[in-house]
Design a protein that fits this description.
With 589 residues, the protein is α+β, with helices and mostly antiparallel strands.
Length: 589
């Protein structure tokens, strides 16, 4: 039972100036969250938000349990040695993602990290008790706080340093078994997000630092989203821009000519190069020098060849090189390695120890312009196999973009949307189980590493995504499944005994019927109560005012148009009907 007169409840007329995202503004104004000591990325969840999180968590648990997964709970404080076993301690500490601490001083102090994820922790738990293939498959999950040292925490709950996450880990004897659980989780995640009232897409995605052979992200579509999604409805294809592939258009035609070296003094861009030489940008080969960074090996130079009108996808490049990160070579490094400025490096640049890779966009390209390893000149009408130009290994390093042709339906083009990642599922394979010795005896008695899947949901991010999608000028529009309360009961004037008494009786009736009711029994003006109810987004409002003299109460659906007046005696029946209607509308989306 919740009465506002005895609750800690407040709302703000204006959001703090630092709030940019709609969800950030509304959740702050409505008192759902509050930053801890004004610190970006750290938020306390007020009673209203806690109720939302509990309802989201219940939906997530119901869908997880329906797949046969078992809930557990693993340590947030994790010793460095298990991360060193997997090889990720250097990855997460060098880039600053991990919050690190020690349990003492000097050489004997033990290092720890606050868990940004729990692959290592779950592997340590499982390996002590896994022995036989007969124990497989199984799936463990938890709902717990995670910690990541975000360099730019922003947009409120969208990107924070401390957040609530559901993460699950499945273990298997065969790829087929892993595939079955992966598909079961795909369906479970689809159910979760639909039940929470979200407009979302499942997209092919890069696995990032988690790794593995394949993954899908579940993206809530909204303008504030930091991820770009490319999709083709004709082919049923969707992917994060880091993963997306496309068919590159044919290069523009070019007139006849013969190989030559022409002066291009002072150029810095392909646009300047094209204008000076009178060639299409799509007939230029860019030669871009990167440096690949490895945990246990020296950095290596990498030369990437790509068409002038395309951009290198550095995520694809990093994955192809299997390195921690890549960066552009500096002008000083280029001068030392090749003796030229950026823009004049050639495909055959004599760089010691260089890895040479070509994007598909230059495979088969003819009569192109490119660098000659000499400042202020370019080669024109060049071709592979002539004048010492050799096409290196060809791979997909291109950044797909809206307007490209779809590789699955060439007659269609890719479209783009912005999205917020809500969930991510991975096929990890033996990436963690092999180095951490999570082994089982197969049917022949041979020891094998268990194959793993990993499945995450941003529990505390999800409500923010809902608010981004579902709000109006008056406040939040919560889907009824995750609203902090299904209904707010408002006596217009608690000083009027008839209103107060009738509201008390109706409150008892509603709560006895299992309807999640917020009773606004504050001695405030009706207009204040209505504004607060709209701001916090309760789906149904029942008001007892002057019409009570005629035996009527007012029922209004938040954001649903005009209020209806019904007899007080029929209020419970009407409310139940509206709740069922709202739930049905949500289920049918």
């Amino acid at each position: 039972m919740t009465r506002l007169s005895s609750s800690f409840f407040y709302t703000l007329r204006e959001a703090p100036a630092e709030a940019v995202a709609i969800s950030h503004k509304l959740l702050l104004r409505a008192g759902f969250i509050r930053p801890l000591a004004g610190t970006a990325g750290l938020y306390a969840y007020g009673p209203l938000m806690q109720r939302v999180l509990q309802k989201v968590g219940r939906i997530v648990r119901e869908e997880m349990d329906a797949t046969g997964a078992q809930e557990a709970l693993f340590c947030q404080l994790q010793p460095a040695e298990i991360w060193r076993e997997s090889g990720r301690w250097a990855v997460y500490t060098q880039d600053g993602t991990m919050f690190m601490l020690k349990d003492g001083q000097g050489e004997q102090a033990r290092e720890y990290g606050l868990g940004p994820t729990h692959e290592e922790a779950v592997c340590d738990f499982v390996r002590a008790g896994l022995h036989s293939y007969k124990q497989l498959p199984f799936h463990l999950y938890q709902v717990q706080t995670k910690f990541r040292n975000e360099k730019r925490p922003r947009f409120g709950l969208m990107r924070g340093r401390e957040f609530i996450m559901k993460d699950g880990y499945s273990f298997h004897a065969t790829p087929e078994s892993l595939g079955e659980t992966y598909q079961a989780m795909y369906r479970a995640y689809t159910n979760m997000f639909r039940r929470c009232g979200l407009n979302f897409r499942a997209v092919e995605a890069d696995s990032g630092a988690i790794g593995g052979s394949g993954s899908h992200e579940f993206m809530a579509l909204c303008d504030i989203g930091e991820d770009t999604i490319l999709y083709c409805d004709a082919a049923g294809y969707a992917a994060n821009v880091e993963k997306a592939v496309s068919l590159v258009s044919d290069p523009e035609a070019i007139g006849p000519g013969s190989y030559a070296v022409k002066p291009t003094p002072g150029i810095r861009t392909v646009e300047q190069q094209a204008a000076m030489l009178g060639v299409p940008i799509s007939r230029i080969v860019k030669n871009i020098v990167y440096v690949a960074l490895y945990a246990e090996a020296d950095p290596r130079p990498v030369l990437v060849l790509i068409r002038g009108d395309r951009q290198v996808n550095e995520t694809k490049l990093k994955n192809r090189l299997d390195c921690l990160d890549v960066r552009l070579a500096t002008e000083a490094e280029l001068a030392a390695w090749v003796g030229v400025k950026p823009g004049f490096v050639g495909p055959d640049a004599p760089i010691a120890g260089v890895i040479r890779l070509a994007d598909h966009s230059v495979d088969g390209l003819t009569d192109f312009s490119t660098g000659c390893n000499q400042d202020d000149v370019q080669c024109v009408w060049a071709n592979w196999g002539e004048n010492g130009l050799v096409l290196p290994e060809v791979t997909d390093l291109d950044t797909a973009q809206a307007g490209d042709r779809c590789h699955l339906a060439p007659e269609a083009t890719l479209q783009s949307a912005r999205g917020v990642e809500l969930g991510h599922i991975f096929k990890l394979g033996a990436k963690y189980s092999r180095p951490m010795q999570v082994l089982f005896a197969d049917e022949t008695g041979e020891l094998q590493p268990a194959l793993m899947g990993c499945y995450g949901v941003g529990i505390s991010r999800l409500p923010a995504a809902v608010v981004e999608q579902s709000h109006d000028n008056d406040g939040i529009l919560w889907p009824i499944a995750i609203a902090p309360y299904q209904l707010v009961l408002v006596p217009a004037n608690v000083a009027v005994e008839a209103q107060r008494q009738a509201a008390e009786e109706l409150y008892g009736t509603l709560t006895a019927a299992g309807i999640d009711t917020l009773f606004d029994d504050r001695p405030e003006r009706a207009g204040v109560k209505f504004k607060d109810a709209d701001l916090i987004g309760i789906p149904l409002r029942v008001t007892l005012g002057r019409d009570l003299e005629a035996g009527l109460v007012e029922i209004k659906v938040r954001g649903g148009g005009e209020a209806q007046k019904v007899p007080l005696a029929e209020a419970l029946v009407q409310v139940k009907g509206l709740i069922e209607r709202l739930n049905s509308a949500q289920r049918s989306r």
